[in-house]
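Sequence in, structure out. Go.
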Amino acid sequence: VQLQASGGGLVQAGGSLRLSCAASGRSVRTTSNNGMGWFRQAPGKEREFVAAISWRGENTNYADSVKGRFTISRDYAKNTVYLQMSSLKPEDTAIYYCAVARSSGSTSSLEGYQHWGQGTQVTVSS
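Output:
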C-alpha cells in the first residue's frame, strides 16, 4: 500500500487546513477494513499521535492537544482519509504523517500502524 499525504502548507495562527491521505496499490483492498491514523513529528521531537478512525468510521480517537480543533474522516470510495484542522496554533507545526493500522480500530499506538505515508509539512505562524 502506498500512502500519499497532501494539503500541508503555511498558515497563520487561528487558521485552518485540510490534510488528505490517499491510499493506492495492489494491497489497498486488503487494508480497506483497517483503521487509519494521523501522526506528527516536530523538529527534535518524537513522532506523536494526532487522530485515528476505525475502519467503519464509527470510532474516532484524538490526542488531547487537538480535541475540539481537529476532525478525522474517511471516504471509502476514494480510499482517502482526511484531517480537518482548525484554530491552528504554532505548536501544531510539524510534519504530518498518515498511516494504516494493523487492526480495524482507532489505536493511538505508534506500533499499531503498518504502512506510512511520506508526510506533509504544516507550519503555523504566530
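Check: The chain has a mean pLDDT of 94. The longest strand covers residues 17-24.
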